[in-house]
Every structure is written in structure tokens, then in C-alpha cells.
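Internal ticket - ligand job 561, zinc ion:
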Amino acid sequence: MRYAAQRPLRICLGALALVIGGGAGCGSDTASPSLSSPGNSGGNAGTSVAGSSSGGATQDASPPGSAGQGGGTNLASLGPGGIGAAQSQPLSTLADACGGLATGLSIHEVAVYQTVKIAVDTDGTEIAAGSRNADVVTGRDAVFRIQVAVASGWTPRQLSARVWIRQSADATPTLFFSKATISASSVEADVKSTFQVTVPKDSIDLDTSYAVEVVECTSPAPAGDMVSPRFPAGTDFAAVGARSTGGLQVEIIPIMANGRLPDTSDTGLAIYKAIMLAMYPIDSFDLTVGAPMTLTTYPIDWVGALDQLRARRATDAPPAEVYYFGLVKPEDTLAKFCGNSCTMGIGYVTGTQSGAAQGRVAMGAGFGDSLSALVMPHEVGHNHGRNHAPCVTAGGMITGIDPNFPDPNGKDGVYGWDARSMALMGPTRTDVMGYCNSKWISDYTYQGLLEHVATVNAALSVYTVAPPPSAPSVSTLELHHVLLVDGKGPRWGIRHPVAMLPGGTPEMADILDASGKVLQQIEVYRTGISDLDASSIEIPAPRPGWVSVRVAGAPPIAFQR
Ligand SMILES: [Zn+2]
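stdout (C-alpha cells):
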């Protein structure tokens, strides 16, 4: 990732992109916009959360002072279909002390937020799994966001939105709720006009189903017609349709650079752990710390350092699903390190095929600030096959753009939810895979990560039985040499320490003899390196008579024997 200051604007360390390109001076990062700040588009900041001993934390979107208390209530007395009975009970028998379906109101939309908005009901029409913009993930906290539409002549009053969660068809439903004073129809950008009901991760499983109803909290309620205050109508439940992706494991390698090491204590790593859990479609994030690695040159040779880290992973030979992330802090402060222009991170753009595991390696700035924290999801995103969202600050440049990214300006395009601050993220925020400010994550990138995580984790069980039919032939299992190609041309990296399947995408290269004549063409394997428009290419060890190799886009280079 590169960081760029805009010129002539003094947007420096608060911005998160990677080359600070302008001549504008950059001071400290005290002016940095924080991810936890309110979203744009008028979105309001996070609201308070009332935890409860039952684990049914309920978010209350009401202004402070008017908030109702939330909590989870297990309705042991209610059997299947017991919701109807609950509705007719008098106020105060349930934890929200409310009751009776709301009159003069309909549920306009129900959306599930774990990281990005996933609409599951629009005006009473279910949007089932498979037809959604992204998948709900098991084992992640979920915020059910409910928008309502009120009839003309509406009397503002407090209501409770109830989300009934059933773990299986014959299970007793559990209540989660949030109260809000509704004075008009919901406005999506305004969390005070909608209900946010938090359903804890333990309640989101493969067979979980839900029902949403809005009930009156005053007695007697104003007279009015019943419109559509429940989804699904009647006493039905709808499937959450959650999918199990599994967790993510990252081994942090503290990188000694310029005589300095980053803080890799639990406290020092907390900021990285929090953002990965908030942003990635995973049910757990396992962060471990390995032995430090030392860089012998400074300023950092990023491509060379990444190659060193790749060789380290190959030597360590961890399980395939373990990602290596080198954390580097070569100066006391980011401002001192970055100046007006700097690279903040780099990583391989890797797939899920056999052999690709060796490229699950990235590195980035580890200053412990909000800007450094965004480097990890970006670079590990490259390791999940993600290319760049088309967004860069004025005066900067970005390569490796994903041609399929849906928004031409790299914006998220959908609302999101930051579980760290319980804040709504506006749709005009930009995607984490771009270089712009105001980052959150698009549903496009989120779902892309989700598919990759699910594939990598599913492969764990598959590989114990048999290799996939698409596995490369044994003939490609060998001690490859590694060629690094960047703006400085080709140079040799560190050879594979053991024979292994190639991790890159096959392409042809020329083998030359001593006179420069092409002897033959061979298959080599290219893996893209993000952010510096570079490549790492695996090349078979030289056979007799091979003098040099010429890969696409670079001059020939002599083999080292
Ligand atoms: Zn990047």
C-alpha cells in the first residue's frame, strides 16, 4: 500500500493511501480522520450498547436519556409458533416491557449487518440467501437494522423492535430487542430513525431463523389500523441463511529495520486484531507472534524484504492456512518514517490453488495507529486475491486495479457497520483495497474475501483425504529459483528451500544460451506483488546449457548456479 499526500491540500498522515506524492508538508497525525468517527452522508455515530447478563446485548438507537434497556430473553414458556401468543400478552411480561403489534406502521426493510449491509427483507418480500449481495457468516455478531414506514397522522412514540431468533425449527425462540422513539418514517442515513438490534454471534448458526416485529410500548396505544409490523407475516420464521467460513490465522513476524522493532505485545497488537475481526468475514482471528526477522538495508527494499519473508515462511513450513504478516516500524513515528511519500505495505496477490499457500505473505507499517491498522486488512486482502479498488488521492497513483470493481471511484456503494465503534458507515466511504481516505469495505470486496476464506478453510479437510483433481503434476514439484521483477528490472530472490509446487500463474519464458540465442521456452510461474507493480516468478532450476532466462516484460538475466 502506498500513501500519498494531496497537493496542495495538506492531507497527510490522516489519509490512508500509500504514496505521499505532493510537496505539501506533513506534520503529525493528530488531524487524522478516525475510522471510528461518524460516517459521512449524515450517518450518526455509534450509539450506546446495553449489555445484558444473558448475552443478548441490545443496541438502543434512541437519544441518550430516552433509551430503553435491552436484553436477551429466552422464552422458555413459548413453544414453536409462540410469537403470536407473545404479541397478545400484556405489556411488561417480556424483557422489553412492551407488547401488541404496532399500529399505523409497516416494516420497510430488514438488513443484517456484520460488516456490510445485507438486506434480507424489503417491504415484506424476503431476500433469501443466494439472492443477496453478500453472505451472512455464522459465529459473527449481527446487527439487525430495521427501517419502518409510518402512516399519515402518525403519533410519535416509543416502540420496541423485536428480533426473535430460533436456532432450529423446533427450538424455543429467543428475544432480542431495541427500543426507539419513532417520530417519522426511517431515513437510512440516520440511526436514530431506525432500530438496531444486536444478535450475539453464538445465535448465528447454520440453521438459525428469525422473525422481526415492531410492538407498542405505551398502553393504551394510539388507535390505528394494523399495516405490516411483522416480518414474515403471521407466525412464520425466515432463514438467516448464514454460511460457515471459519477463522483466519495470521503469524506476525516482527521485522527489525533501522535497528527498531514494532510493539508486538498483546496490547500493541490489539488494534490490528480489532480491525481484522470487524472487517473480515471470519468467525475468529488467531494472531500469533513468531521470531523476529532482520532487514540488513535501510531504507527498506520492500520487494526484497517480502521475498525474505516468503523464504522464512517456506522454511517454517506452517499449515497452508497460516498467513505471515511482517510488521515493520523503522522509525519512532509514522510521520518521521513517511515524510511526504512512502510505501506502507506490500503483499502477494495470491489465489487458492495448490502451491499458493507459500504466497500467503504480506508486510506493512506497524506504528500502532489507525493508519497502520488499515494496512493489514489491505495487504492480507491482496493475499486473498484482491486487487485494487480504483481510488487514489489527488496527485497519487495506483496500479493493479481490479477491472471488475463495481464502483468507478472505488466507493463502497453500500452502508456498513463498524462493530468496534458500533457506528454506521456511509456508502460513499471508499473500499479498503483503494488508496483513498475514509475507508471501510464494499460488499464486493467482503464477499470476495468470504469466498477465499471459505475455500482455504474448506481445503483443510479436503486435502487430508486426497489432493484436488486440479493439482499440478508432480513434475512441477522442484526446487524453483525465484526471480523478482520490479521497476529496477529482474534480480534473483531467495530459492525455495525445499521442493514445492509452484504458487504462481503459469506463463512461458525464453531460455537463452551463451550467445543469447533462444534454446527453448519453458513454463514459469508468476505471482503479482501488490502496490509496487512487481512480480515474483518461480523458474525451474537451470538445466545444462541454460545460461539465462528472459521473462515477459524484463531483459534477460543470467542464472545463478
Ligand atoms: Zn495494495
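Auto-summary: The pocket of zinc ion is lined by residues 1, 378, 382, 388, 530-531 (CB under 6 Å). Residues 6-89, 463-469, 471-475 have pLDDT under 50 and may be disordered.
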